[in-house]
Amino acid sequence: MNKIVSKLLLLIFLGCGVNITAQEEAPSLIRVGIYHNPPKVFINEQGKADGIFIDILDCILKDENLQVKYVPGRWEELTEMLSRGKIDVLPDVAFSKERDSLFTFNSLPVLNSWLEAYTRKDNRIYTLAGLENKKIGVLNGSVQEDFFRGYIKENLDLKYEIKAYPGYPQSVRALKSGEIEVLIASRFFYFSKFSEKMISPTGIIFRPSELYFAFPKQVDPVLTEIFDRKLAQLKNDPHSEYYGILHSWFDPVLRTGIPPYVLWLLVTIIILLLIIIAFTLLLRYQVKLKTRALWQKNRQLTLAKEKAEENERLKTIFLQNMSHEIRTPMNGIIGFLNLLKEPDLDSDSRQKYIDIVNKSGKRLLATINNIIEISKIDSRQIAVHYSEVDIFEVTDFYFHFFHQQAEEKKLQLKLSVNLGEEDSPVITDKFILDNILTNLLNNAIKFTTKGFIEFGVYREEEMLVFYVKDTGVGIPEERQEAIFERFVQANLNITRPHEGSGLGLAIVKAYVEVLKGKLWLESHPGKGTTFFFSIPFIPAKKEDFPIDSDKEMPEVSGEKIKMLIAEDDNISYLFIQQLLNKPEITLLRAKDGKQVIDLAKENPDLSLILMDIKMPVLNGIDATKKIREFNPLVPIIAQSAYSSPGDQEKAFEAGCNDYITKPISKKRLLSLIHKFSGSFI
């Protein structure tokens, strides 16, 4: 009897367990709003939800225990439903401050977009001024309408008439009929079925924006966490379904599929091959060879296609990163320069705005320099220029150079040089070594908020080993190889606090390899990172680099200075003129190389010549050579926007005494004037 009762209790317990499990595994329902905005979101001809966002949503929710119910409606209806929690997700929502106060957005943007002007091909416009007195069509209640009724009218001196339409079909008909002359639509309009042959984009774009999934303000954080996690995985995997979806929507060939006649043709060919094989056994070997050749050719075509897709992906990443890294500081420069025009601006705010403009300019210059360097690496234009380098002098320079920057962040900067006196002078490329150390030290200070930065060098057999150690955020083990790729940082979150193009470590890696060295790192998240790089130890001998002791620099009086500025660009000259606007300095200007030579002959008492390398009529290198024929003593400082060691060597070979790069640093220029004239300015 006890055994029977025990079995019954066990069955009841198991039954309850099954019910509980079933209840726990019951899928949750999320309601997704759908409005008509192809190709991003729309209802297709079969009455089903379709579009780029819908395909991406399917990838995000795959393997999640969630059921989706699509709720169609107009944009105004759906945004109202989302604010009241009647739907759970609304795709394709551009971020704005107003919407951020009403909704919750996922962290990572799904797509980037902008507005573009479209016209008929027989009525093209090419500039923003071409919108004057035009009839412009927009979608009713859209960001296009808000932007043109608000910002454009308030900020641009343009007159135009706005006409709003409920959807693209009506606005396209109006454009074709001449009811409107310009249609303002998102960039995705070009890929929709409404973009006909007679309609053409103008290249005039407005209001770049990022598109997200929007949720109610009181959304369950578990749901947004699913979207953020899955979207980050998809976007960071170059072979994920995310990029396949984009290619399928933006490439009409991929969406149309294989035409039926091609399939019939393939079937016919296969049947003919089978007949030929059946009746010509003697030719079997030749058929195998032919088939193998065709397979190899097909494989080559497949590899070529994959390479083309990879190049397209890299181009997209490059444009997105460079757009961000160039637009961000430019926005700061333009925005705060406009604020500086305010007549009632106090002195503290003015100085603050000037500092912001200066920092933004330096960031923009760093980005441009990185692009130039990575372009040189790609085109294999990096040449190693060996010279004698004093390691003690180099490390001491960078210790003092970065000391103030470290102090501003309340970090301790340490230097450790474990070399003997005989090991310090070595043969290497100083320009490349400087770039490697500058990038690594900049990164260490950028990603460290407390603690210390230590860098140093020691000898290990036939190699010199440099290291830069920090107590910063550290790098996860799974990201340690990826950070040396281009446009990649260790932190994948879009809210990461550190700006940057993601090119620095890629440049460092290429430079170390050019010097036939090795680059590696040790890192622990939350504890810090140490970067190591080694270069061959080639001891310098004094006889390898003889010093010309016969050449003496002229002594010029420090009381009065007469300088010849060779500069064809008016703005650059005005900048130098302001830097040297002192009564004891007399400035002469030459706008081309021939004028430089003539003024140098007419003024033998010149204290200094600031020579621009790139000038009309005669470049600065050739002009320097001509001047040295009749005046071998006047100090000549080359100035150029270029910064490669090859350009510097050409300047020195032509007879220049020193070299300064644009944008010109006031401190550096005054230091050179003092060096060659003996005067303090």
From TrEMBL:
Keywords: ATP-binding, Kinase, Membrane, Nucleotide-binding, Phosphoprotein, Signal, Transferase, Transmembrane, Transmembrane helix. Residues 1-22 form the signal peptide. InterPro entries: CheY-like_superfamily, HATPase_C_sf, HATPase_dom, His_kinase_dom, HisK_dim/P_dom, HisK_dim/P_sf, Sig_transdc_His_kin-like_C, Sig_transdc_resp-reg_receiver. The chain crosses the membrane at residues 261-283. Residues 562-677 form the Response regulatory domain. GO terms for molecular function: ATP binding. Residues 321-539 form the Histidine kinase domain. PROSITE patterns: HIS_KIN, RESPONSE_REGULATORY. It catalyses: ATP + protein L-histidine = ADP + protein N-phospho-L-histidine. CDD domains: HATPase_EvgS-ArcB-TorS-like (cd16922), HisKA (cd00082), REC_hyHK_CKI1_RcsC-like (cd17546). Its EC number is 2.7.13.3. Pfam families: HATPase_c (PF02518), HisKA (PF00512), Response_reg (PF00072), SBP_bac_3 (PF00497). The modification 4-aspartylphosphate is found at residue 612. This is histidine kinase. It comes from Salinimicrobium flavum.
